[in-house]
Amino acid sequence: MQAALPKPVANADSHTYWNAARERRLVIRKCNACGQLHFMPRYLCPSCWSDNLDWIDASGTGRVHSFSVIRRASDPAFASRVPYVLALIELDEGPRMMANILGEDALGVAVGDPVTVTFEDRGDGALIPQFERVATRGA
Ligand SMILES: [Zn+2]
Fold first, then answer.
1. In this structure, are residues 129 and 99 in contact, taking their beta carbons and an 8 Å threshold?
2. Which of the four CATH numbers 2.40.50.840, 2.60.120.620, 3.30.420.10, 3.10.450.50 does domain 10-133 have?
3. For the segment 54-87, what is each residue's pLDDT rounded down to a tens digit?
4. Which pTM does this prediction carry?
5. How far apart are CA 47 and CA 37, in angstroms?
């Protein structure tokens, strides 16, 4: 019942992020003062506090830095989804972001697995950046 899952709530810091997701683009922030890339979207650079930031398109690829298998939903909207994987993804660009691992092989995830972004439809055009494991060549 994916239609019952919550939609993103954009704020001034994340509006561009969620609009890009609607176009199936994963964007992160780049600081023009110190060069740091970061996630989550915010108004000030967490490294140098500059507000001179740009948005850049991320490759959408990375690796699983850590994960947890959720077996009891903390929100009733996710009850039909358990068990599911909540993971900390380290993007190839460096920043880390929380997301679900989707796909039939999601529960077989391991730390270090390569992943690629996918966009989960939450209705009304809202898309959530999530990740899928990259199939091992020849598997
Ligand atoms: Zn900075």
1. yes
2. 2.40.50.840
3. 999 999 999 999 999 999 998 899 999 999 999 9
4. 0.91
5. 9
Cβ contact 90:96 at 8 Å: yes
Going from the Cα of 16 to the center of ligand 1, the distance in angstroms, rounded, reads 19
CA of 74 to the centre of ligand 1 (A): 35
Number of C-alpha atoms within 13 angstroms, CB side, residue 123? 7
Residue 51 to residues 41, 47, 108, 112, 120, Cα–Cα distance (Å): 12, 11, 41, 33, 31
Neighbouring residues of the ion ligand 1, judged by CB less than 5 Å: 31, 33-34, 36, 45, 47-48, 50
